[in-house]
Design a protein that fits this description.
Helix content is 48%, strand content 7%. By secondary structure, the chain is α/β, with parallel strands linked by helices. A 5-stranded parallel β-sheet has the order 2-3-1-4-5, with helices on both faces.
Length: 292
């Protein structure tokens, strides 16, 4: 049986969602925000992890729940809006208490793959969500860069071949990080779309998040481990977040896949050489072996 709201035309649904968000802003002081932040990297499994966590019985969706949004993107794209707008996307304390009475605890999860490489985001998140925990998913940077490129091709905003797009990246993204640092409300579209190479340089951004939250509140995982053992990796995340373990593996199979475009061997070799020192820096930072 179809629910009444499913019978509404799309403009009416949008109006209802807007009214829910407006009501959320008026009660923002009663909405604590995210408990767990999944900060990226882009094309590294953030959607898969977020949707798997959303299936956990202790996790509440953002508001309005029917839209299944991963994040309000307030730390990265909508920083010019008031904090009340951000908090209005989250359940109230009362809703959380009622949910906890049934499920044993209540958590909210926000996932935004722009967070990792936005130089404003870590300190701003720490100021607004001081008790949050942070999960960082990192994928082989060569595979990540190529997947990012394929996604942009699929979106219809990338007309260059991969090698040419890598060569064009410095010009396309010039000054974007400086503008992000200087302008609290700036959205760096070119950085979001075309920073194929730069967004695989992980050590500096990871260090910024650990500096903001402390090593004990930041969990850094390999995407390859998530894909190979989703149930085991999800258990690591839920243990880290303080959620109850779940007997079954992740119920979600939702992954953002991009169309296949062959990766030229010479381009892959050049990228591998470029990332070698960055991967070494990451290993030193984390105290692990070199991951890729």
């Amino acid at each position: 049986m179809r629910r009444a709201k499913d019978l509404l035309p799309e403009p009416a649904k949008a109006g209802v969602a807007g009214a829910v968000r407006l009501a959320g802003q008026t009660t923002a002081a009663l909405r604590p925000g995210a408990d767990l932040l999944v900060v990226g990297a882009k094309r590294s499994g953030t959607t898969f992890l977020w949707s798997s966590l959303l299936a956990h019985p202790q996790v509440l969706p953002l508001v309005p729940a029917a839209q299944h949004i991963k994040s309000p993107h307030w730390f990265t794209r909508h920083g010019g809006r008031p904090e009340s707008w951000y908090r209005g996307h989250f359940p109230t304390d009362r809703t959380r208490r009622r949910h906890a009475a049934r499920a044993g605890a209540a958590f909210t999860v926000e996932a935004d793959p722009l967070l990792l490489h936005d130089p404003r985001a870590a300190d701003r998140a720490r100021a607004v969500l001081p008790d949050a925990r942070v999960v960082v998913l990192l994928r082989d940077p060569v595979a990540r860069a190529h997947s990012h490129y394929r996604e942009r091709v699929k979106a219809g905003v990338e007309g260059l071949g991969f090698a040419d797009a890598l060569a064009a990246e410095p010009g396309r993204t010039a000054g974007e990080l400086d503008r992000l640092r200087e302008r609290p409300a700036y959205y760096a579209r070119a950085w979001d779309w075309y920073a194929y190479r730069a967004r695989g340089e992980y050590a500096g951004p990871v260090a910024a998040w650990t500096a903001a939250y402390g090593d004990d509140r930041v969990l850094v995982l390999r995407s390859e481990d998530l894909y190979a053992d989703p149930a085991g990796t999800l258990r690591r995340v839920t243990d880290f977040a303080g959620m109850d373990p779940v007997a079954a593996g992740p119920s979600s199979t939702r992954r953002n896949r991009a169309p296949g475009v062959d990766l030229d061997d010479a381009v892959a070799e050049e990228l591998r050489a470029h990332y070698e020192p960055h991967n070494e820096d990451l290993a030193r930072l984390l105290g692990t072996e070199i991951w890729w």
